[in-house]
Specification:
The protein is mainly β. A hairpin with a 3-residue loop joins β8 and β9. The protein has one helix spanning about 1-25; strands at about 40-50, 50-55, 60-65, 70-80, 85-95, 105, 120-130, 135-150, 150-160, 170-180.
Length: about 180
């Protein structure tokens, strides 16, 4: 009876060790500096027809624009600072707004007419320059802003994108963007 009990304990311990190894092998590694802060401003996981992790620095710019019909839009653009390998951009736009983009959830919209800046909702694209793929454009998903001030915007994204060859990818992750100005 003691032998069976010992075997069970050893097998349970071994199973736990293997499970821990499997679970932690899928957790993305984020570089940290000596003061334990995250060095990268965003860490995005891409899955689907193209699997990759994109990390780096992101910046933002907010503005107000008025159409030739007199309709005012508040816009917020989030972009990669380093565009050597990837071009990634998100745009949030609010119609009839003189208020800046604020905390909240912004859903992807595909109902745009006219200029890219003049719509109510969010839009984005990813162009992976190191691949032979066509650029991917957002089909659905959301951008969530959890912190915003004049210097920094923090949040997370969960997006589905598709290119003109009907290849699909998903992008999810957290970001911290600094003001471009």
């Amino acid at each position: 009876m003691t032998i069976n009990y010992s075997k069970t304990r050893v097998l349970n311990l071994l199973g736990c060790i293997i499970a821990m190894g499997l679970f932690t092998s899928y957790v993305p590694f984020v570089e940290r500096s000596s003061d334990n802060t995250i060095d990268n401003n965003f860490f995005l996981q891409i899955s689907g027809n193209y699997n990759k992790v994109i990390k780096g620095e992101m910046c933002f710019e907010s503005s107000y624009e008025t159409t030739n019909r007199g309709v005012t839009f508040s816009t917020l653009r989030l972009e990669l600072e380093d565009t050597k390998n990837n071009k990634f951009s998100l745009l949030i736009s609010k119609e009839n707004s003189l208020e800046p983009i604020s905390l909240g959830t912004y859903r992807i919209t595909n109902e745009r007419t006219g200029s890219m800046n003049y719509f109510d909702g969010a839009f984005g694209y990813l162009n992976v320059l190191a691949s032979d793929e066509l650029p991917f454009y957002t089909e659905n998903g959301k951008i969530v802003i959890t912190k915003i001030n004049g210097k920094v915007i923090e949040g997370f994204i969960k997006l589905s994108l598709e290119n003109f060859n009907q290849k699909k990818i998903n992008i999810s992750g957290n970001f911290i963007a600094s003001n471009l100005n």
